[in-house]
Amino acid sequence: MEQRPVVAVAHITLETDRMGESARFIRAIGMRPIFEGNAVAVYELRGGTHLILQQKDSITPGDAPFDLMVDDLHETHRHLTALGLAPSPIESRPAIDHEVFYLQDPSGWVITFFSSHTSGKPV
């Protein structure tokens, strides 16, 4: 029987200059709050990875330093649209057999959402 890989991503970090708005956004896209403070907040993703949200006086946003994967990209897109978050249209990426859309967070970071591409084995 296949075992889970022995390593996982423990933490990813995102800086924000709008902690309250960013915290609400992170919860709205589906992360579980672990700790929420004024200078730092911790959110859990599937698989146990934690997003560390850090308050900074100023940031230079661009593409987020990570991307996300969801089981049902179209349902996630509908859900985020219903929340008024304005994701980009879904694009097909035939070269990698996936679909993708983008969503801007309150600080200006652009987060990429991919359709699932797990192996189907325990992770």
From TrEMBL:
SUPFAM superfamilies: Glyoxalase/Bleomycin resistance protein/Dihydroxybiphenyl dioxygenase. It comes from the Bacteria. Residues 8-116 form the VOC domain. The keyword Nucleotide-binding does not apply. InterPro entries: Glyas_Bleomycin-R_OHBP_Dase, Glyas_Fos-R_dOase_dom, VOC_core. GO terms for molecular function: dioxygenase activity. Keywords: Dioxygenase, Oxidoreductase. This is Catechol-2,3-dioxygenase. It comes from Chitinivorax tropicus.
